[in-house]
Design goal:
- The chain is mostly helical.
- It is about 80% helix and about 0% strand.
- The protein has helices spanning about 5-30, 35-40, 45-55, 60-85, 90-110, 120-145.
- Helix 1 (about 5-30) packs antiparallel against helix 4, helix 4 (about 60-85) crosses helix 5 and helix 5 (about 90-110) packs antiparallel against helix 6.
- The mean pLDDT is about 85.
């Protein structure tokens, strides 16, 4: 038997599950494409670094900073969706561990992909993004009265 609260959250959970699946597919395209194809997908880093260089920042340093921030942003949905889908199971520190594990897996897999470069800073940025997403989701859950609790 379901309660009225559970029946209201089912459609939302289905949307969150679909969003998480779509996010994981998009993430796989971004992180597992060979270098040349990945550059076409993530070429915005050079564009934004160019804008910052026009403002007087050195291009190389700007591109490193933009890439780091992009890696944080890339994993915010990961942490948020994991936390929203399983709020009782995945608190922020578990999301930290899951984000670090997922990012480490990605970086190790990229060692096998021609032209891809791995970096510890990517693991740090991705993990930070996952935690930021989890904390944002926690705030959202508290604000909404935990209607998504399962």
């Amino acid at each position: 038997m379901t309660t009225a609260g559970q029946s209201r959250t089912r459609p939302l959970r289905r949307w969150l599950q679909a969003a998480f699946g779509a996010y994981l597919v998009a993430l796989a395209f971004v992180v597992f494409l060979p270098s040349k194809e990945a550059g076409a997908v993530t070429g915005f880093v050079a564009v934004i670094a160019g804008w910052l260089a026009a403002l007087g920042l050195p291009f190389k340093e700007a591109s490193v900073g933009v890439e780091f921030v992009s890696n944080i942003v890339l994993f915010v949905p990961f942490g948020a969706l994991v936390r929203l889908l399983w709020p009782r199971r995945w608190n922020w520190w578990r999301v930290l561990l899951l984000g670090a594990a997922a990012s480490t897996f990605i970086e190790l897999t990229q060692l096998l992909i021609p032209g891809r470069v791995t970096a510890l800073s990517d693991v740090i940025a991705n993990t930070s993004g996952a935690v930021a997403g989890a904390l944002a989701a926690r705030w959202l859950l508290r604000r909404s009265g935990n209607h998504l609790q399962n």
